[in-house]
Amino acid sequence: MSWLEPSTGEDKDRFQGGKQLGILDFVGESPAPLDTALGADLDGRLYTDLSRATPEDVVTPTEKFYIRTRASELLESQKPWLIRLGGLVDQPLNLTLEELKRMVKPAGLHLMECAGNGRTARFGMLSVADWAGAPLPEVLGVVKIKPQATRVLISGFDRYLTKSKTSIPGASWIFTLEELRSSKAFLAMEMNGQPLLKDHGAPVRLVVPGWYGCTCIKWVNEITLVHDDVEATSQMQEFATRTLQLGVPRLAKDYRAASMDQAAMPIRVEKWVVDGKIKYRVVGILWGGARPVKVLEIRFNPEEDYVPVDSFQQTTNDLWSFWTHAWTPKRPGIYMIRLRVKDPPVPTRRLDKGYYLRSVEITEV
Q: Are 115 and 239 spatial neighbours (Cβ–Cβ below 8 Å)?
């Protein structure tokens, strides 16, 4: 299988002629099933198996794209689907799906990560898709916005037959007009060349490139123009800590953009035998941030020094970039693999706290 072969880069020669013996499992992480939909409604999940991601095929198949909330059975009663455009506008209106489809354009590849992504999900709430949708500025252009309107409240259908054990109903987020413009936000209707599936927000989902998935509202049914002193939504407050806010602000204007900082982590550790010797190859991804970084470094346990990864090049922030590193552990034991970005101006708050640290147990050197 092509994904088992060494990628091009500085470490390729080190494994030339070798044989891969297997892939090590990360220790201390949940054994939750991957690539399989679990549960229902607000408690429904699907965790993507990142260990099989490759530079040759960066798009996550739709059926394996992560799910944070599954579709409600009550969605069937919401036909025909309309999006209410109202609030501080001269003349509110209902936008039909046919009208929205006429605005749909290819939007390209974009990565999405759940703000609650973590070890309990094996960091599998992270995926990339090829999207198509209607740009938000064009959608908002069908109404005349009043001068006092400075923010946009985007809401989605969020009613369920059962009560959630993990989350609060009320899917909505408030953005400034500039945030929607600069992020190139759009109302998605297609994913990987096909119409959206219900679990991914069909018929209409908001996608805000570079922002956490909690802002990418599913089942969008209302867009409201609001003033600057509007209160934050329940979803903004629920995800305040996970989107790195300063406390839990009461007003929407006190929330910082819920954009993803630059992050990186290993996705698999391969065990090889080369010229009769055991070697290991760490494969990982880098994502988030607003501009490509120049230097990525790796460390195995706190007592060791950071060193530059062997093979790394980031060309875009819209999806993930791959890196590889040849590694020869000194002795058997458990190793904690941690990454850092050397570029000082680049925000890396989660990475700095060791949020994406992963551990493996080495039994043979």
A: yes
